[in-house]
């Protein structure tokens, strides 16, 4: 008889092994194709500085450190070189305009004055002698004219008489011609004498004018030299505080050397060095502010010095309103110098991440707060507080702004 053969069932263990053998390759394949292969790093979120991307008013400014100086400083330079003979006051004292400060001596300058005075006297004598010679020559010419006029008068009378006698045949033609020739000679001689007198007068007048001009020029030069002699006494050009004096008794000073300075204490200004990178963006009329003793003070750029020294140029800033009461010369202040007006912008707070990324990318925190992923961004302007975001972020997103120095080049941070 036929025997019923029972269908054999697979054991559970075998089914399990087959299932694992089939699913594992599938899972691995899916993981390779669709899984997250980015590099990761576990990091303690308490060590991170996280801030939110926000909309706000951006103020483009730079921090600069300036020194307080007097509103006006007058420098004392040697107008003439010489030996320091006497110091009338000491540095640190208050002086009034016209007060004597130093006395110099210059032997060469004294000799120069004596030489110029001698030249002036000689030129004055030349002018006097020329005038005397001109007067004498004038008198001589007058005497010659008197003599010629007399001879001409006598000769004309004889010539007129001989003309009458010749008409009556009482004298010969020869006798008449002699007197007539003599008369014509005297007429021509008188005309030449008059022309000589005229030309000599013109020459003498021109010569005297030149001598007078030379004498006047020498006189003015002498006055200038004497003024230089007065400059050997150094006096205060303004009233103020004699801050420094660089001269010792017996010391030799050359012309143009700095002897000291006087500070006018009627007010103060701030002189600040600025990196040459900003030279095209800093102009007269821009504003700045600084805080002192719980008060804020506004400044405005009064002068820009375009010369760059050691990578920096300088500006002078003056107070737009009242000055701090307790401000002192040489005091330093930290100024926020405005480079542009307020404008709406997307902002993130400044942070050390910029040192590793250069502002090209940043870690953006996931809304869950569990991870942070690298994202490319583009930053614009910056100031002491914020960076302007141009692209790559949205308002309200959380970003990590602390240093990335220990993160390496990982794509994702696992926050714990």
Instruction: Name the overall outline.
Output: elongated
CATH topology of the largest domain: Helix Hairpins
Helix content: 25-40%
The largest sheet, given as strand count, sense and whether it forms a barrel, is:
6 strands, mixed
The strand line-up of the biggest sheet is 1-22-18-17-21-2
What is the subunit organization of this protein? Answer: single chain
- Structural class of the secondary elements? alpha+beta
Helix-strand pattern:
HEEEEEEEHHEEEEEEEEEHEEEEEE
Q: What is the CATH architecture descriptor of the largest domain? A: Orthogonal Bundle
The level-1 CATH class of the largest domain: Mainly Alpha
Give the tally of β-strands.
22
Q: Kindly, what is the distance between the CA atoms of the first and last residues, rounded to a whole number of angstroms?
A: 74 Å
Outline the low-pLDDT stretches.
none
Q: What share of the residues does DSSP label as strand, in percent?
A: 25-35%
Radius of gyration: 53 Å
Indicate the mean pLDDT: 83
Q: Structurally, how many domains make up the residues?
A: 3
Number of helices: 4
Describe this structure in words.
The chain has helices at residues 12-34, 107-167, 173-230, 354-357; strands at 40-43, 50-52, 54-58, 61-77, 82-87, 94-95, 100-105, 233-235, 240-245, 252-253, 258-275, 287-292, 295-309, 312-319, 332-338, 343-349, 361-365, 371-376, 378-382, 386-391, 398-400, 412-415. Helix 2 runs antiparallel to helix 3. With 416 residues, the protein is of the alpha+beta class. The two termini are 74 Å apart. A six-stranded mixed beta sheet has the order 1-22-18-17-21-2, with no helix packed on it. Strands 4-11-14-13-12-15 form a six-stranded antiparallel barrel. Strands 3-16-20-19 form a four-stranded antiparallel beta sheet, with no helix packed on it. The model has no long low-confidence stretch (mean pLDDT 83). Helices cover 35% and strands 35% of the residues. The radius of gyration is 53 Å and the shape is elongated. A hairpin with a 2-residue loop joins strand 12 and strand 13. It has four helices and 22 strands. The chain folds into three domains: 38-60 and 343-415, conserved putative lor/sdh protein from methanococcus maripaludis s2 fold (Beta Barrel), CATH 2.40.420; 62-66 and 262-338, Efflux pump adaptor protein, beta barrel domain (Elongation Factor Tu (Ef-tu), domain 3), CATH 2.40.30.170; 108-230, Helix Hairpins.
